[in-house]
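[09:14] KT: can someone run the structure on this one? pasting the chain below
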Amino acid sequence: MDLMKHKENQWDELKTDAQKALVIGKLEAYENIVNYFNSMRESLTRLLLVNDVKEEDYDKLKKKFESGSEEKSTQTEIEKVFKEIDSHEFDDEGDKVSFDNC
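[09:31] RB: done, structure tokens below
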């Protein structure tokens, strides 16, 4: 039963308004992060739906790539994509491809 006893001064005391505001700021920042992650999850879910990935396929795909059996072929595909990207140094307007052109 000792584990169930409540400690009287378990939490820090926020003595100033600045300390309180700091905690409120952290709380709001964490809320923004949660919203960001939820948006990312929704976006990835929509990507799967648009590409006709069924819910029953999820576990099968997950197991397939967790085992590492597809790792080598996947790495080869990734390398091909990067080589293709590197081969396109200029965009349609003749400008050198760069994030500075955005």
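[09:33] KT: thanks! Residues 47 and 53 are 9 Å apart (CA to CA).
[09:34] RB: yep, looked fine to me
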